[in-house]
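**Fold in tokens:**
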Amino acid sequence: MFIVIKHVHDYPISSIVITMAPQTNNDQNSAGTSPNVPPPAQPDSPGSPAGDSDIDPIGEILQPEDNQKKSDEEIKKNNLKSIVSTVAILVIAPLIALALTAFVFQSYEVDGPSMETTLQNKDRLIVYKLPRTIAKITNNPYVPERGEIVIFTRHDNYSLGGTSDRQLIKRVIALPGETVRIKNNKVTVYNEQNPDGFEPDKAEYGDVITNTDGDINLTIPENSIFVMGDNRPQSQDSRAFGPVPLDDVVGKLSLRVYPFSKGESF
């Protein structure tokens, strides 16, 4: 092997072309060796290790075994989390619904005509219980306001033709410590602020009151209220069974939700 340096006149003098002159047979024979040309690279056999590369002979990326195990573990953990979340929702959701019903609000249906025409038979109502719940937690009596419509539990229903507990809906007329007089179809309430008495039926709700039967002169005990239905001739109320203990009050009427055409807040 030798190098031939040619000056190319068409190019700058610094341009030099280097060519490899082929060896003659004599050169090969005199050297006693074959040309020093490296053999072509042989591809790795299918069974040979690929070194540090994660690419297989056909170009696919191989997943190391450790990573594959981690991926399987993550999938199992995610599946377990999903199952636990679903079970938690199925268990917790009913508990929340029960708690809301017991302590915050509850749906009721009117049964009977005693609150007509304010409420009709089969009306669907939402009763708000939270004030009563807070009062019990703080160990204070829950005293509804005069004129509010409340739901309460009657434990002694002999006067109503039954023996089991029953929940009734009536309007608050008189508060603890006040005196109620019913005479000549007129209701009068006496208290410290009104020693000469006032007529609660002259409030806005009184438009639906027709007449009030009875002859009553009663001072309401502490922790009790006096209630009556708006449809006085057809209402069994405190005129029959006396004042209602505050502990028996469930809550106050908040909404009428059915019939939809008569939806109303109270």
Q: What stands out?
A: The chain has a mean pLDDT of 79. Residues 123 and 136 are 29 Å apart (CA to CA). The first strand starts at residue 3 and ends at 7.
